[in-house]
Write a structure and sequence with these properties.
Layout (H helix, E strand, L loop, with lengths): L1 H27 L5 H15 L5 E6 L2 H17 L10 E7 L2 E9 L14 E6 L9 E5 L7 H12 L7 E8 L2 E10 L3 H6 L8 E3 L2 H11 L16 E3 L2 H6 L4
Parallel strand pairs: 1-6
Antiparallel strand pairs: 1-2, 2-3, 3-4, 4-5, 5-7, 6-7, 8-9
Length: about 250
């Protein structure tokens, strides 16, 4: 009996100490504290079951599907997705009762974008307003963007007045197969600047081509010096360079 009582007392003390430490850590991060945190959990967790993500349906015919499958198989064999042969194919999309045309291709570089049946797609919507206000966007397994971390980062960026991508979650049905929840991510382009209320102009980046040549060469047993694939070796480029060069106003 004494041993059981002592065990209960020690357990309660450990629980109180753990609660005190947790409360202190939360307040150090500018959170109201443990009680407020537990209240949020008790309110939000049951409410989460009532949330139904937007549904996006994608249909491609057999010929287009075969092209996508060929890209997927090659990517799985090599461990990396290469642009060669990764062409856009025609697709029919349905969202919120509205059907529209689009072009899609396999998106990404590493093979995590083609694991199982949940492939990543780059989409160009042939519709005014696109999907959720996006004409160019990506669909991918949330794990390729670290689940909620990317969503949280975009929210923080937007809150600080920085340019932030439209990023969220939707359900995807591909050729009648329910693929579950995907992360959608706005691509860099004119619409991004419009949404962010920024003037029209080129969006500059470090060209990642050398990095991926270096990565692919390593997979094939060809070794280069490490600096070859680093950002410092990259040239400055713009997204959609071809369109930028054709535009006399930029």
């Amino acid at each position: 009996m004494r041993r059981r009582t002592l065990f209960v007392i020690v357990a309660l003390l450990l629980l109180l100490v753990s609660a005190w430490i947790a409360d202190r850590e939360l307040k150090a991060r500018r959170h109201p504290g443990l009680l407020a945190f537990m209240g949020q959990v008790l309110r939000n967790y049951p409410a989460s079951f009532a949330i139904e993500p937007e549904l996006l349906e994608i249909e491609v015919d057999d010929h287009e599907l075969q092209q996508l499958e060929e890209v997927v198989e090659k990517a799985r064999e090599r461990g990396v997705i290469i642009q060669e042969g990764d062409r856009y194919v025609k697709a029919d999309l349905v969202h919120d009762g509205s059907a529209f045309k689009a072009r899609i291709r396999i998106k990404g570089k590493l093979s995590d974008h083609v694991e199982g049946s949940k492939w990543s797609f780059r989409v160009i919507a042939r519709k005014e307003g696109g999907f959720m206000g996006m004409k160019r966007f990506s669909l991918q397994h949330p794990g390729t963007r670290n689940y909620l971390y990317e969503w949280f980062y975009q929210q923080l960026s937007r809150g600080e007045g920085l340019i932030a991508l439209k990023y969220g979650f939707c359900k995807v049905r591909f050729n009648g197969q329910d693929l579950g929840v995907y992360a959608y991510e706005e691509h860099f382009g004119e619409e991004l600047l419009e949404h962010a209320r920024r003037p029209e102009g080129p969006i500059v980046r470090f060209d990642p081509s050398l990095y991926w040549v270096h990565r692919l060469s390593n997979l094939e047993g060809i070794r280069f010096d490490e600096p070859y694939g680093e950002e410092a070796a990259s040239v400055l480029d713009a997204y959609r360079t071809g369109s930028v060069l054709k535009d006399s106003t930029t």
